[in-house]
C-alpha cells in the first residue's frame, strides 16, 4: 500500500467531526512529527503510534522557577498588546483598545484592559493619596488608603465601556478591537460607596456626588445619589491585585453599567451636592447631539451590545466546522439571549451563553457553524433582562441621527469572502 | 474654640461605624491634607470643606496613553511578587508561591499565579508544538495549535493547587503565602478533552490517559478515563489571554479539583491505555506514606480547605472594626459554608460567601469583626457540597500520621498579640 492510499484509508476511518480533510489528522505519521515540517510531511511518515520527535525544548532544562517573579506573556505572543492609533496629534488625552479578537472567556487580563485618559496617567504614591468626602455631609472625611481598606469589602465582575465605542471613525476599523475595543471586564474589589457616605452621614438635600480624579485633567463627573447608594464601588483591586496606574491606581469609582468616563479614576474627592456640577465632561463632551439640535445629557447607562470576536476582521476561516464566538453585555443587567445570523440577518439562531452569566459583566457566547464556503455575512444581536434587543445601525440612526455617536450599540456585521477572509461588513466590499 | 476641642467635637458627631478614633477622620482639616504629613497634622488644619492640597501629580500631564502597550503594576507595588525560597540548591525543580495575603477577590492575576516545575520552564514555539493522541484509539491524531483551536471551546473559573500545600516546612511559614501559596485560580478556556478523544475514537479497553509534558522532565501522569470524559479541559487561555510559559504555554490539561501536578503543562502527548503508567510522579512522588508503611497512591482530589488571608501573618491590626477575609475551596465541588472562630476554636460563626460561588473555584469569604484588643487566635474552616468539613491538624494526623504531608488541609490558626501583630498559630509563641 502506497503512503498516499494508506493516508486516505486512515482519514476515512476517523470519526472526524470538527477537523477537516486538510487538518493534521494522522495515523501512521508521527515519527517525523512535532518539530518537523508541514502537515503533509507528517501524514506520510511510516511509524504508527510512536511519539513525535523530541523537540529542542525537552533536551535541556528550561528557565528556573522564579526567573520571573512577576510573570509576563510568552515571547511568541508579543503582538498581543493594546491597540493604539499611530497617527494622533497627542497621546495625553487619547485611548488604546483591548485586543478583543485575541481574547477567550470574559476576564480581561490587567495588562490588556483598555485605556482612556484625559490628562495622562498620574504616578500616584498611595501613602500620600487621600480621598476627601465633603459637601452635604454631617462630617467630612479625609481618608488614607489604609482607612479605605478598613471598610467592609465586596468583589464583583463588571465590564467598563467607553461611551464612544465605536465612534464614527472606528466604524471603518479592520478588527474587532478597532470597532469596539473600548470595553473590558474584570473582577473589582472595594468598598460600597454607600458605606463611606453613611460613615460621613448624608444631609437631607444630598442629590448628587461630584467625583474628581487626581489626574492633570482633574476629570470630574456628577453621579446621581441613587446610584451612589446602590451598587457603586470605591475600588482598589482589579483581578486580584491592586489597580494598575492606567485603571486608576490607587483608587477609582466603579459604577456598574454606567459609561466609562463616569467610573472616575485616581479618585481624590467626592463632593456631595444638591445639583450636578455640569463639568466639562458632562457638557462639552459625553452628550449626544440629536437631529433636532438638542443634546441628550447624563446618558448614564450603556445599552445592550454584542460582537462576534472569532472569526472577526483580519481572521481567515476554512470550510467546515468553525465555532463562532463573541462577547455580549448590557449596562442594564444580565444578558438573556444572544442570537447569531450566518445569512446576513435573514434568519437568527440562539447562541450558547457561557455560565456564569453575571449582571453587568461581559458574557461569552458561542455558536457552532459549518461553513459551506460561500460568501456571507455573520452577525450577532443581544437581548438583556429588560427585554431590550440590540438594534441595527439603520434602526439606531433613525432615532439618533448622525450628529454624534456616543452610545452606538448597533449590530456589527462581518463579511466572509469566498476565500474565507473576514472583513468589516460596515465597509463596502 | 481650640483646634483640639474642635476636632473632638467633630469626631463625636460622626456616625463612624468602621473607622476608629485614630483614623484620619476630619472636619476642619483639609487644606493641609493630601500630600502633607500625618493624620494629626490633617486634623488640626483650619479650613472646613476645602479640597485637599493639589498633589504634584495633578500639576503636569501624566504618562501618555499607550506608554505601556502591555500594562504592568504601579512602581509602588513592586514588592507584590511571587514568593520564592532563597535557599534552595537548585531552581529547576522547585516552586514559587502566590502572595495570597495581597489578593482580593478570587481571580489570581496571571503574573502572580503560583509555579511548580520539574525540569524548568520550556520556551515553546506554538507553531512547532504538536499534541499527539494515540494508544487505544481508532485513529491517532497529531494536532497543531490551530487544529486545537478549531474544536468547540468552553471557559470555566477553576482553582489549581499543588498537592503539597503546605508541606512540613511550610507549616512554620510567616505569611499566608508561605503556608498555602501553592494555590491559585483563573478563568481557563479550551476544549473538552472528551471532544478530542471522541474525534480519535476510544477503543473498548481504554481506561487511562497518560499525559506527557514537553518540558525537560517530560512530566507524565495517568488520568482515569472517567475524568477525561467528564470535565477535563485542554486549555490554551488563562484569564482571557494565552497561557503564560510558567502555566504551560501553549497547551495544558486542567483537571478541575485534581492535584496540581496532574494538570500537565506544555502538553504534547495523550497515550490512551488500559493501565496507568506508574510514572515517576505517581510512584516516587505524589503518594502519601501512611503510618502502617503503605502508600496512598492516585490521591487525585484536593479536599476542602480554607485560610484567612486578611489579617494574616506579618499583618498588624488595630482595635475596633477589622474585616476578616479569606479563601476557601474544594476539589469536590462548591463551598457551602465557611465558619470563622475569633476565640481559638471555642465558638464558630458563619462567614459571608461572595457570589458567584463556583464549583472547584476559590471562594472569597468575609466576616465582620470588632477586635477588643485582647490576644486571641482566629481560624476558618470550610464545608463543601459533599458535607465534608475541613479537619483540625490533630484530626488529620490521627488518620494520616506524620510520614508524609501531601493533601494537608488542616485548619490554619493565626495568633493575634496584644499589640495587634498577626503570627502563625502553628508556631509556639
From TrEMBL, chains A, B:
Which is one Pfam family of this protein? Oxidored_molyb
The record ties this protein, via InterPro entries, to: Ig_E-set, MoCF_OxRdtse_dimer, Mopterin_OxRdtase_euk, OxRdtase_Mopterin-bd_dom, OxRdtase_Mopterin-bd_sf, Sulfite_DH_SoxC, TAT_signal
Single GO MF descriptor:
molybdopterin cofactor binding
Tell me, what is an example of a GO biological process annotation in this record? sulfur compound metabolic process
Which residues belong to any copy of the Moybdenum cofactor oxidoreductase dimerisation domain? 299-411
Q: Where is this region: Disordered?
A: 37-56
| Cofactor(s) it depends on | Mo-molybdopterin
Q: Which domain of life is it from?
A: Bacteria
Give the record's keywords alphabetically: Metal-binding, Molybdenum, Oxidoreductase, Plasmid
Tell me which residues make up the Oxidoreductase molybdopterin-binding domain.
118-277
Output this protein's name: Oxidoreductase molybdopterin binding
Amino acid at each position: 500500500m502506497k503512503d498516499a492510499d494508506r493516508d486516505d484509508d486512515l482519514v476515512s476511518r476517523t470519526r472526524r467531526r470538527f477537523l477537516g480533510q486538510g487538518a493534521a489528522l494522522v495515523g501512521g505519521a508521527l515519527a517525523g512529527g512535532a518539530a518537523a515540517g508541514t502537515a503533509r510531511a507528517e501524514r506520510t511518515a511510516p511509524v504508527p503510534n510512536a511519539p513525535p520527535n523530541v523537540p529542542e525544548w525537552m533536551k535541556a532544562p528550561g528557565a528556573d522557577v522564579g526567573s520571573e517573579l512577576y510573570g509576563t506573556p510568552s515571547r511568541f505572543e508579543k503582538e498581543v498588546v493594546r491597540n493604539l492609533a499611530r497617527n494622533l496629534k497627542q497621546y495625553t488625552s487619547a485611548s488604546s483598545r483591548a485586543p478583543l479578537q485575541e481574547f477567550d472567556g470574559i476576564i480581561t487580563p490587567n495588562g490588556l484592559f483598555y485605556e482612556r485618559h484625559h490628562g495622562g496617567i498620574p504616578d500616584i504614591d498611595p501613602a500620600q493619596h487621600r480621598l476627601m468626602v465633603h459637601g452635604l455631609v454631617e462630617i467630612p472625611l479625609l481618608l488614607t488608603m489604609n482607612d479605605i481598606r478598613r471598610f467592609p469589602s465586596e468583589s464583583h465582575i463588571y465590564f467598563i465601556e467607553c461611551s464612544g465605542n465605536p465612534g464614527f471613525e472606528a466604524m471603518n476599523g479592520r478588527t474587532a478591537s478597532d470597532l469596539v475595543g473600548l470595553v473590558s471586564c474584570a473582577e473589582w474589589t472595594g468598598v460600597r460607596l454607600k458605606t463611606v457616605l453613611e460613615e460621613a452621614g448624608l444631609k437631607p438635600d444630598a442629590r448628587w456626588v461630584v467625583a474628581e480624579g487626581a489626574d492633570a485633567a482633574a476629570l470630574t463627573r456628577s453621579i446621581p445619589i441613587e446610584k451612589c447608594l446602590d451598587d457603586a464601588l470605591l475600588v482598589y483591586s482589579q483581578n486580584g491585585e491592586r489597580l494598575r496606574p492606567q485603571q486608576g491606581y490607587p483608587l477609582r469609582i466603579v459604577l456598574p453599567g454606567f459609561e466609562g468616563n463616569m467610573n472616575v479614576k485616581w479618585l481624590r474627592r467626592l463632593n456631595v451636592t444638591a445639583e450636578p456640577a455640569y463639568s466639562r465632561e458632562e457638557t462639552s463632551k459625553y452628550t449626544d447631539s440629536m437631529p433636532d439640535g438638542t443634546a441628550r445629557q447624563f446618558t448614564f447607562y450603556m445599552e445592550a451590545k454584542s460582537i462576534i470576536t472569532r472569526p472577526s476582521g483580519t481572521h481567515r476561516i476554512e470550510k467546515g466546522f468553525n465555532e463562532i464566538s463573541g462577547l455580549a453585555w448590557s449596562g442594564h443587567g444580565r444578558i438573556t439571549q444572544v442570537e447569531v445570523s450566518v445569512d446576513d440577518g435573514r434568519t437568527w439562531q440562539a447562541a450558547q451563553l457561557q455560565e456564569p452569566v453575571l449582571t453587568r459583566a461581559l458574557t461569552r457566547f458561542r455558536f457552532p457553524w459549518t461553513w459551506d464556503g460561500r460568501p456571507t455575512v455573520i452577525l450577532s444581536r443581544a437581548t438583556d433582562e429588560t427585554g431590550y434587543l440590540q438594534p441595527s445601525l439603520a434602526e439606531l440612526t433613525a432615532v439618533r441621527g448622525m450628529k454624534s455617536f456616543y452610545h452606538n450599540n448597533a449590530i456589527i456585521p462581518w463579511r466572509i469572502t469566498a476565500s474565507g477572509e473576514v472583513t468589516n461588513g460596515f465597509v463596502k466590499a
